[in-house]
Amino acid sequence: MNLSTKILIGLALGIIAGLELGAEGAGFAKTWIGPLGTIFMNMIKMVIVPLVFSSLVIGVTSLGDIKKVGRIGVKTVAFYLVTTAFAIVIGLAIGTIMQPGVGLHMAADTAKVAAKAAPPISKVIIDIFPTNPLEAMVKANMLQIIVFSLFVGAGITVVGEKANALKHTIDGLAEVSYKIVGMIMAVAPIGVFGLITPVVASNGPSVLLPLLKVVIAVYLACLLHAVLVYGSMIKFLAGMSFIKFIKGIAPASLMAFSS
Prior knowledge:
There is one protein chain. The chain has nine helices and no strands. It has 259 residues and is an all-alpha fold. The chain has a single domain (3-102, 118-258), classed as Proton glutamate symport protein, CATH 1.10.3860. Helix 1 packs parallel to helix 9 (242-258). The longest helix is centred in the C-terminal third of the chain and has 49 residues, at 188-236. 19% of the residues are buried.
């Protein structure tokens, strides 16, 4: 049985267990089952920063040409900004058409929080470049980590042989990170079970059913973004079959979906 199937089974069992426990068993679910999901998510967050940093640095050094590094850096930032813009447009369109929040009432803190004005584009660009890369790693600021990784990879490439020791160290970190991810994903079905059970037990069908429209809206937007935006890029820029790509990322997608 592959990992994707196991994750789906864990998700289904979590929903069933949550419905069986109900509101009376919500305390039990949060105390004894919920920690399984919390620990799982903590382990995922634990490995994200070293994985992204080491993978990007080794990817850049493998190019061997500093000019390619610069072009890839510009393309990476452009890709991030363009795909984010598409995601915003699709999200606003789906929200306007479906009105997912209408008729949904959930208990929440009634304290009002003033909305912040959107920062100017100049500040957005400035914030991409970290003043303290360690702080960026602590806060898991992915875009700043990406930029720092590109610079480190470029620096190693320019220095050459004298930086081989650093390159080998980061390469070792990448390999270790891959192995840790494999260990964590092996227990993904249990983590997913721990994540969903307390949610279903606490809210029950009376809240979950009205919430279904919100869930459908969110995942419809995600599906449109994946097919239209990423699908087009994969087909026309990478020259790869979109179906083959989807099959390859299925375990990661199911993990994101269920958590």
